[in-house]
Amino acid sequence: MNAVITLSDLYEFKRCSLRYKLTKKDKLNTSLNAADGLREAVNSTINYFYYNLQDGKFITMGELKEKFSSIWYGEMDLYDIKLNGDREKRTRELEAFKMLQQMYRKEQRSESDIVAVNLDFRIPFGDFAIQDKIPLIRKTLQGYEIVNFKTGKQKYDEFWQRTDMGITLQAIAFDSMFKKIADSFCIENIRTSKTIYVERARKDYQRLYKSVKMMKTAMSQGWYYPNESFMCSSCPVKDLCMEWR
Ligand code: SF4
Predict the structure, then answer these.
(1) Which numbered atom of ligand 1 lies nearest the CA of 19?
(2) 238 Cβ below 6 A of ligand 1
């Protein structure tokens, strides 16, 4: 098996392997719901901001909003986002502006240097690999800091902080690229304006390796089955799932 998957594939597979198969593998429905769409559009806008900053240009808030709107209204045709009409579109747009404003204000006070933005990585697991991106690496007085931006309403509680697979993957990737463990991991929740610091050490990599190994085994055996839960109500492939026998 020579598969390359992303972090979002890994999460999707764990939530429901049948949904993963239908949406990610067979690509029968690739549209994003409003929350996922908003997260992707906001993150793309943040990348744009930091690419400019890395080039020495601190763009204005107006330019940032303009960038978001061009993604949100599909001018750039990046995402297929399912929304309930223009009203929801505008409400979500205002929600995004508020979050971008939080990020912007914080950055105005920051004294760190940008090291890398949206940095690609690929981690091999035998004949299998996971690829993803480190959203931001900056150099602070404490050293190299990996930064992630959260836009969701879910509480980033201690369990999630300690088991967040994205952070663990980024730690492994940083370790292999920079030949050292990152000095800090910062989670900027731009919805609540809270900053959380988490830790990762080599001992934390074990959990992820085990998860990936099990996913790999399940895929090679073709174990794709429905995992019914409250999330089914917003599942884009529930009609197909109902026919699963
Ligand atoms: S409806 Fe539920 S069980 Fe079926 S594929 Fe979607 S998430 Fe999985």
Answers:
(1) 5
(2) yes
User: Quick check: is 212 in a domain?
Assistant: yes
Give the nearest ligand 1 atom to 238 CA: 1
Using one digit for the tens of pLDDT, what is the confidence trace for 88-108? 888 888 999 999 999 999 999
Residue 145 lies in a domain: yes
Index of the ligand 1 atom closest to the CA of residue 232: 2
Residue with tokens 């508020």: 98
Question: Does residue 42 lie within any of the structural domains?
Answer: no
Q: Is 231 in the pocket of ligand 1 (CB under 6 A)?
A: yes
The residue whose C-alpha atom lies closest to atom 7 belonging to ligand 1 is 232
CA 188 vs. chain centroid, Å, equals: 13
Distance CA 76, CA 65 (A): 14
Residue partners of 126: CB distance under 8 A and separation at least 6: 216
Kindly report the pTM of this predicted structure. 0.88
